[in-house]
Specification:
Elements lengths: L1 E2 L2 E12 L38 H13 L3 E2 L2 E2 L2 E4 L9 E4 L6 E10 L2 E14 L3 E5 L2 E5 L6 E7 L6 H18 L11 E11 L9 E6 L2 H20 L7 E6 L4 E7 L9 E2 L6 E2 L2 H9 L5 H11 L4 H7 L3 H14 L2 H19 L10 H13 L4 H14 L3 H8 L7 H14 L1 H8 L6 H11 L6 H13 L1
Parallel strand pairs: 13-14
Antiparallel strand pairs: 1-2, 2-11, 2-12, 3-7, 4-17, 5-6, 5-16, 7-8, 8-11, 9-10, 12-13, 14-15
Helix pairs in contact: 2-3, 5-6, 7-8, 7-9, 9-10, 12-14, 12-15, 14-15
Length: about 475
């Protein structure tokens, strides 16, 4: 994106808390809603003499994420100490990875406004999370529950040129993490946080401008707003002849602006060195291949398969693969219903609307895929009409009842017998001689009146297609 002859250069660092039961280097629980400082031990609060032990599951989750992002996996990776002093970092250093990270040189592909984009993944490395400072006026309280939770930091290349592109990249990474079930992606709880690196340069220039980091953004909407603001701020500053400082800034969503937090450190300022208490992580080719075989079908591949195997249009495939659970729900519904497109329509219109209104996720839906599939199958067989289906659907949503039981209890069987429908049509025509004469005289719009009258007389149970066919024949006769 070009503004005033400048272009933005954007890279993202996504910090994903891994969905392990215990912390990165000790057995403390990672449960989010624990009481303040409940999930702590001498290790996670940095007591002298304590020793870290690596969480095996965190390594497995990290390798799988790296493979899903197309990364090369190092057979040998090393944990280092990243030294800086902050109240919520109890040891005075963070255990992270520096020059020998677990995952490197990957890429991820996504679409922005129907244009395909590919962004490189420079590295994805393991580290531990810091605690959390809670500020109350002139006092600050520290909660160390988060301290030591396993993090995977996914660092993109400086490949993005607009805020919209960066936000979509972040959404896509979150989608992959959730498909893998290695991170819940809950931005409100801080399970996923974004740091945005932004600089500007003249269009056509090869050299990057001075990079500014916007720290810890917990909303994709705020990612977009913060980057847009920062691009405009930097361009205005350069135009005024000011020097852009390498610094860390924070986003203020209430004022819709970024503000300076601290000058940005370079890598050498952290004085990285290998952690003497931790051995290198050694992986064999067989282990890496085993993790690769365990990967689920990823969103883009599943989207393509939905279009070929289920003959769905692109829009349907994109919506239905946004979450792994939604894609699973669709596939089971489609299999039972025998009509993939009809299953897609019911899920995307009726079910997703009700879930949104009730603020429920697909896994909490009172209508299970088997039940919805059976209901769609009843419509396909002609047992009930589409209109009846909506009645059945609402009852299923309210009660969780089986669709066949609802149809039986409410007497919603569709009338398909042509002689029975013909008899109703004859009665409607006989009861409306003036309208019949007007229709036969050229007022063809009255056809809708007759359809409505027949459906009303049949209590909505007559097959609409048969009604239309027989009415046309009778009125023209």
């Amino acid at each position: 994106m070009s503004t005033k002859g400048y272009e933005a250069v954007i890279g993202l660092e996504i910090h994903a808390q891994l969905k392990t039961n215990s912390k990165m280097f000790c057995s403390d629980s990672t449960k989010f809603d624990a009481a303040d400082n409940e999930n702590t031990s001498p290790v996670s609060v940095g007591m002298p003499g304590t020793l870290p032990v690596v969480n095996k599951t965190a390594i497995e989750f990290s390798v799988k994420t790296g493979l899903a992002l197309g990364c090369e996996i190092r057979r040998k990776s090393v944990f280092s100490r990243k030294n800086y002093f902050y109240p919520d970092l109890p040891k005075g250093y963070q255990i992270s990875q520096y020059d020998e990270p677990l995952c490197e040189h990957g890429k991820i592909t996504f679409k922005v406004d129907d244009v395909e984009k590919t962004v490189s993944i420079t590295r994805a490395h393991m580290e531990e999370d810091a605690g959390k400072s809670n500020h109350f006026g002139e006092y600050t309280l520290i909660n160390y529950n988060r301290s030591g939770i396993p993090l995977l930091e996914i660092v993109s290349g400086p490949d993005m040129r607009s805020a919209a592109e960066a936000a979509q990249y972040a959404r896509t990474v979150r989608q992959v993490l959730r498909y893998l079930d290695v991170c819940d992606g809950n931005l409100e709880e801080g399970s996923l946080r974004c740091d945005c690196n932004v600089s500007v340069r003249k269009v056509g220039a090869e050299k990057f401008g001075t990079k500014v980091e916007i720290k810890n953004i917990n909303s994709f909407r705020f990612v977009e707003k913060a980057i847009d603001f920062e691009i405009d701020r930097q361009i205005d500053a350069v135009e005024r002849g000011e020097k852009i400082l390498q610094e860390t800034r924070l986003w203020d969503p209430d004022k819709n602006r970024t503000f300076s937090m601290r000058t940005k450190e370079d890598a050498q300022d952290y004085r990285y060195f290998p952690d003497p208490d931790l051995l290198p992580v050694i992986l064999t080719g067989e282990q890496i291949e085993k993790f690769r075989q365990e990967l689920p079908e990823l969103p883009l591949a599943r989207q393509q398969r939905f279009m070929t195997e289920h003959a769905l249009p692109l829009y349907d495939a994109e919506v239905l693969t946004t979450e792994r659970e939604l894609a699973d729900y669709f596939e089971e519904t489609a299999k039972i219903s025998g009509n993939s497109k009809a299953a897609s329509n019911w899920i995307m219109t009726e079910l997703l609307r009700e879930l949104k209104n009730a603020e429920k996720s697909i896994v909490d839906s009172p209508i299970k895929p088997a039940a919805l599939g059976k209901m769609v199958a009843l419509i396909e067989k002609g047992t009930i009409s589409g209109k009846m289906g909506k009645t059945v659907f609402q009852e299923m949503w309210a009660s969780g009842q089986d669709p066949e039981e609802i149809v039986k209890a409410k007497g919603l069987v569709q009338i398909t017998d042509t002689s029975a429908i013909e008899k109703i049509i004859d009665e409607v025509i006989a009861a409306n001689p003036q309208q019949t004469a007007d229709y036969r005289g050229g007022r063809v719009k009255l056809f809708g009146f007759f359809v409505g009258a027949v459906m009303k007389a049949s209590k909505g149970q007559a097959n609409p297609e048969t009604v239309n066919q027989l009415l046309t024949k009778k009125l023209q006769g």
